[in-house]
Specification:
about 140 residues; alpha/beta
Amino acid sequence: MLYDGGAMGKRILVVDDEEDILHFLELVLGDKGYEVTTAANGHEALARAQADGPDLILLDIMMPHMDGWEVLKLLRVDEATANLPVAMLSARTEAQDRVQGLQEGAVDYICKPFALRDLLGKIDSIFEAAGATGRTD
């Protein structure tokens, strides 16, 4: 069973250049009680992360103009966003990509296509871990 205790009020920023994925995750996560905002590119993601202070960012890697790796690096060097949990959400499934994501500060690496139940379980686990470490943003 999925942990359901912390969804209400938790804010998730979903970053992906695929509109279908943005809309799907916005609907599904919203139905689970999360407040969801979306960004279609890296520049928009950085602006929303600063302005909205999400509790979690689901970040695609392969985007035009600024990829997810660059976004992650910029989030980590900015004091306001350095501690935000970021889970990479990508079609890149190579082990080296997963390792790189974790080495660069992602808290998880979720491969597309993903099973919805698995994604929700990973999100719950991230929030449980953040609660256990005292992180709030």
